[in-house]
Design brief:
With 131 residues, the chain is of the alpha+beta class. Helices cover 27% and strands 16% of the residues.
Amino acid sequence: MNREETINKINEVKAMNLPHMNYTKLKEYYGEISGFKETEENIIIMDEYLNNYLDPKNKAFENGCWVCGNKDVYLSWGIIHGIAYSNCCGLDYKCYYYSDDICEDKKLFNGRIDIILQYHLNGFEIKEIDE
């Protein structure tokens, strides 16, 4: 996929207005989070953080990767802890979530959360770089 095709694909998928992840969906899909206290403040913090990711159970993923269309997405670890990338197109996936990553000021939960989420397209852009 070349640069222009990538830009077109990102714009096409952005136009789909795909749903964001949130704490309610996280709990529904993956169950309770060890040590998490469901206060209004903590849920707001989790929702703000999870808003950066796509809801993994939306219909956009029925046909495989939204970038390249590959139905068999295999992930490999990159150089950043907790982040893997797709072997077919290089799209990053967040796999490990620590309390400190979500909120530096307070411990929200014990250990880590292990789920694979794609970054939401609202955070994607193509920047021009002068060479």
